[in-house]
Design brief:
Blueprint: E1 3-5, E2 17-19, E3 34-36, E4 61-63, E5 76-82, E6 91-95, E7 101-105, E8 115-116, E9 129-131, E10 140-142, E11 144-145, E12 152-154, E13 162-168, E14 171-175, E15 181-185, E16 189-192, H1 208-213, E17 272-274
Antiparallel strand pairs: 1-2, 3-4, 5-6, 5-8, 6-7, 9-16, 10-13, 10-16, 11-12, 13-14, 14-15, 15-17
Length: 282
């Protein structure tokens, strides 16, 4: 796995990069594990835009991913590593001895022909899913549950992982990539290893059209809008904030730089041991 570049046959090709696909072993998805993927275009049920700059893009089939890994104690064989248009990571097709198939996130080092298993008695090998209480300290994990039995909800994007730092009082302490240390119930399941496709973050789109394929529409700066459309719009010539000099903000008046948007009192506060941005002592 790595990055490939292109000959500069056009302005869009110059500087464009993409992740190589030599690790992929199957082009078409498992039909029984796909579903129709309804896209909103950023609109809610009333047809109003609630998320700006979304729409268009290529059609996609949704791949049903097994985030729960609830078939415990039964080894499964990795049939193939596949591309998933709905996420940044690769996915692995696994097959159980009874013929049942499922998709899981493909971690670094997982290849076709390997065996994976879930359960307390599983070995802490790449691709295996275990409760946090049975995973050795210092192990890299991904696809971690917040609530036992709910299925993995965090650490699922390409290249991401958390490190199991400690265990105390029925909880496991995970150090996230952001530097945050979070307390998770030790009965929650996690998968061993780092999520694959680690070069995804280094990809250069090369041209605006490549973002449009992904359903991302042009993002317009508020400063170039009219006063009726944005608080920072208007002014004679290039103006920081509509002729006035007020702070950068969203179209609805929420401050954009330095203003903390997280609620001051959230139930999850009790599970955060160390913030990702530690307060300075000065």
């Amino acid at each position: 796995m790595g990055l490939k570049s292109y000959k500069p046959t056009s302005a869009g090709r110059r500087g464009m990069t993409a992740v190589t696909t030599e690790e992929l072993t199957k082009k078409k998805p498992e039909k029984s594990l796909t579903a129709f993927h309804h896209r909103t275009g950023g609109r809610n049920t009333d047809g109003r835009t609630t998320v700006r700059f979304r729409g268009g893009g290529h059609k996609r089939l949704y791949r049903k991913i097994d985030f729960k890994r609830d078939k415990v104690g039964i080894p499964a064989k990795v049939v193939s590593i596949e591309y998933d248009p709905n996420r940044t990571s690769r996915i692995a097709l696994i097959q159980f001895p009874d013929g049942q198939r499922a998709y899981i996130l493909a971690p670094v080092g997982l290849t076709a022909g390997m065996k994976v298993m879930a359960g307390e008695k599983a070995e802490p090998n790449v691709g295996n899913a275990l409760p946090l209480k049975t995973i050795p300290l210092g192990t890299q994990v991904h696809n971690v549950e917040f609530v036992p039995g709910r299925g993995g909800q965090m650490i699922r994007s390409a290249g991401s992982f958390a490190t199991l730092a400690n265990r105390e009082g029925g909880y496991a302490l995970l150090k996230l990539a952001s530097g945050e240390i979070r307390r998770i119930n030790e009965n929650c399941y996690a998968t061993i290893g780092q999520v694959g496709n680690t070069d995804h973050m280094n990809v250069s789109a090369g041209k605006a059209g490549r973002s449009r394929w992904l359903g991302v529409r042009p993002h317009v700066r508020g400063m170039v809008m009219n006063p009726v459309d944005h608080p920072m719009g208007g002014g004679q010539g290039k103006s920081k904030g509509g002729g006035g000099r007020h702070h950068p903000m969203s179209p609805w008046g929420q401050l954009a730089k330095g203003f903390k948007t997280r609620a001051k009192h959230k139930p999850s506060d009790t599970f955060i041991v160390q913030r990702r941005k530690a307060k300075s002592k000065n």
